[in-house]
Amino acid sequence: MLNATTNFDALLQNDTENLQSKYKTLVALYARFAPSILIVDRSITPFWYFLGLFGNLLSAYVWMHPRVRRKNSSAVYLAALSVWDLIFLALHPFQEVREAWMGISENSLLDCGLLHIPLLTAQYMSPVLVLCFTVERWIAIWFPFKRDSLCTPKRACIVTVVMICIVFFYNLIQLKFRRYDYELSVCIVNTQAVEWTVYTSISEIIFSGFVPISALVFNLLVAIELYRITVGNKHMMPNGDGGDASAERKFRSTTLMLLCVSFFVIVTSLPAGLLYALQNQNYGNVTLTDSEVEQDSTWQSYFSATLTKKIVDELSISHYSLNFVIYLLTGPQYRMYAHQLLSSIFGGCCRLIRGRVGQPKEQLKQREDYYFNNSRTNRAKRLSERNSTMSGTHATAVGRGSAELDGATTGTGGDTNALSPLIVKSTV
């Protein structure tokens, strides 16, 4: 299979003119016959980098905030998702520069394995984490009485660590097929081995097929059950506080946000897997001249298929960058903490842009306290404190009444005039 770093020296063994002498790499070939491929690759990807680095840093701060992750297992998955998306966007430019700009192969020991393995791990962790929190939300909706025991932050941390270990050690298999040649200073990948074909096929089936499709199935189950509960006016949402309206709205809002994120990752991941299964390796006759290549239908079909693949690849990268947009649109709590962070960084500029000049900082603190005080734990605590206060007030009132009665009978306190007729009568 040709890729952006394929060297034509290996491919054009029987070629004696033109293509071999003019176009050593596919980047040079695309620049001559299909420049739109390079335009798509070079213009869109940096845009995803810019948005993703900003959005994932913001998301990691919000989801790791102590008040957000407290009693919120979904925040653990979303924080891990932001971190791994950030790692992917930080490592991907090294590969992008080689393939889209320089047209060279992996020519260092770092590229050959030490950089490639973490990049693949970050790439695969995104759909895996989406599947994890989708399954958790399915448990919360379909088995509400098991939510408190199964959907906890501690269990979410354990699941996340286990998934990271599985994906990382699975990617270590790549080292079996990669070898760095110190004499040639190039990374050699044994792509002709049958095991390599089996390994790459299984990887695409699992991470671009099975994982997104499984997440889609659980998403549909959650959406159907949530719709049934809403339409049927069954307000027994699994929030642990009965029909508390505020907790119910918060639960549904979080569920909607997670569904949107999950559907977005599925929509952007599945096409890449389908395209891999349907890809065509007909590259055309490499002995043709430039004018013949322009008229050759096989080469033109190859260029069109490559352009389609580049567009799909850019679509697939988008979900590593744009999750924070969904959080902003569907998560009120996320918006509040994001605004708080941006306000603290940019000072009055953020409030000026949002038309909030002169807004006291105490309002932000009050909004933060509102979400915090409406959590289940603190509602129970406030109820307990209120009962204790009421009990104390009742005891004080009883004590005061007893003191007044004692004062009336002894003539040393209380309203003796009001009780004196009764005392005289009882004495007589």
Question: What features would you describe in this structure?
Answer:
Helix content is 76%, strand content 2%. It has 428 residues and is an all-alpha fold. The protein has a two-stranded antiparallel sheet with strand order 1-2. Helix 4 (35-63) runs parallel beside helix 14 and helix 12 runs antiparallel to helix 15 (323-330). InterPro entries: GPCR-Ligand_Int (IPR052954), GPCR_Rhodpsn (IPR000276), GPCR_Rhodpsn_7TM (IPR017452). One of its GO terms (cellular component) is membrane. It comes from Macrostomum lignano.
Question: How would you sum up this structure in a few lines?
Answer:
The protein has 428 residues and is an all-alpha fold. It has helices at 8-11, 19-22, 26-33, 35-63, 66-69, 73-102, 109-114, 116-142, 147-150, 153-171, 194-231, 245-278, 290-295, 297-318, 323-330, 332-346, 348-353, 361-373, 376-410, 416-427, and strands at residues 178-181, 186-189. The protein has a single domain (5-9, 17-233, 253-343), classed as Up-down Bundle (Rhopdopsin 7-helix transmembrane proteins), CATH 1.20.1070.10.
Architecture, CATH level 2? Up-down Bundle
Radius of gyration: 32 Å
Domain tally: 1
Helix vs. strand class? mainly alpha
What best-fitting shape do the alpha-carbon axes yield? elongated
Series of secondary-structure elements, N-terminal to C-terminal: HHHHHHHHHHEEHHHHHHHHHH
The counted number of beta strands is 2
Describe the main β-sheet briefly. 2 strands, antiparallel
Proportion in β-strands: under 5%
Biggest sheet: strands side by side, in what order?
1-2
> What name does the CATH topology carry?
Rhopdopsin 7-helix transmembrane proteins
Q: Bin the helical content.
A: over 70%
Summed over residues and divided by their number, the pLDDT gives a mean of: 74
Fourth CATH level, the homologous superfamily? Rhodopsin 7-helix transmembrane proteins
Main location: membrane
InterPro entries: GPCR-Ligand_Int, GPCR_Rhodpsn, GPCR_Rhodpsn_7TM
Keywords: Membrane, Transmembrane, Transmembrane helix
Pfam families: 7tm_1
